[in-house]
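Students often ask why we bother encoding 3D structure as a string. The short answer is that it lets us treat folding as translation between two languages. Here is a chain of 393 residues written in the first language.
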Amino acid sequence: MSLHFCKIFDKQTKSFSTTLYMKHFTKLFIVFTVFLSGNLTYAQDVSFEEYNPSSTLKVPKHPVQRAKFPFIDIHSHQGGINEQKIDQLISEMDEINMGVLVNLSGRGFGRGDSNSQQQYIKDMLKEFNTYAPGRFMVFTNLNFAGFGDENWKRTAVKELEEDVAAGASGLKIYKSLGLNVNDINGNRVPVNHPDLDAVWAKAGKLGIPVIIHSADPAQFWQPMDANNERWLELKIHPNRKRGEDNSAPFEQIIAEQHDVFENHPETTFINAHMGWMANDLDAAGAHLEQYPNVNFGTGAVIAEFGRQPRRAKEFFEKYQDRVLFGKDAYNKEEFYTYFRVLETEDEYFPYYKKYHAFWSMYGLGLSDEVLKKLYYKNALRIVPGMDKSLFPD
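And here it is in the second language, the structure alphabet:
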């Protein structure tokens, strides 16, 4: 403990007195010491990150470890695909009633040149089709190496055609586009760069969807203070903090993405993570109204629905043909929270990752009709080549 000296005005002597301050401070210090020593067995320093008390609320509980209907996870990332990995995945998928897993990392995560990436996706498709035909779909990715060269656009379109011919069912665009993809001159490549128009158009002609993740949550760009709802996440993962020059303002990146949707109405897009609008469902609804070629994926935003169950239920009912179930990071146990939020009317139950949501969840209690569309019908309509026999009518 450090001592801070300051002068206090003494009414009796009509002067400032440091001694008087020390006398009062000593009394306070003694009282505080006695109080602290009498409570050592009860008090314990706990950080905000650690503070996670068990709720004393007594309400009905209906935990769900298996989805009510077979479902398609439109947003997963899997690597190291071989017979052993596939057997493990199938076992877990059967436990939770997942009919099809869509692996968006068809080319890995941008490692190697185009030839090695294309061989990577071909090998992956072969493994899936050999050991679990129909249970896995694969989306390809773009290689941005050499972007800005006069041959990049032609090569990208050609490789997209080849990957689809080899069995890819869609195109996944990582958030790196708009954030840290640079051209051959070191300049940031915006999401709506003209050289990408040919890629979006080709996807439309091939009849495959483009699932696109742009930017990060808006709070990553906001001051990291007591008003930032993502403060805990940013404290735990400081590398996620962004600024206006890292690599562009949030609003700019999102505007670039929306510009792509508008300029390519013949291409079907899946806006990953609800386009970071799950916390503003009025904006999300307006987005779908403005862009009829766009759908939403629910990956990593279930916590937003779980804190506004009545409003979220209205949204899912109104836009039941435009939302696809997705999880993103794969963890079998974490699916349970998704099922419980979507299927039950439970109240005040915990989310699985505190730094994403320090609040509790409430169930939406979606109808069977809405659940079926969210779980599999919308994906079956949008993604070509799915085995429809795995799902009810």
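Translate back mentally: The longest helix spans residues 18-38. Keep this in mind for the problem set.
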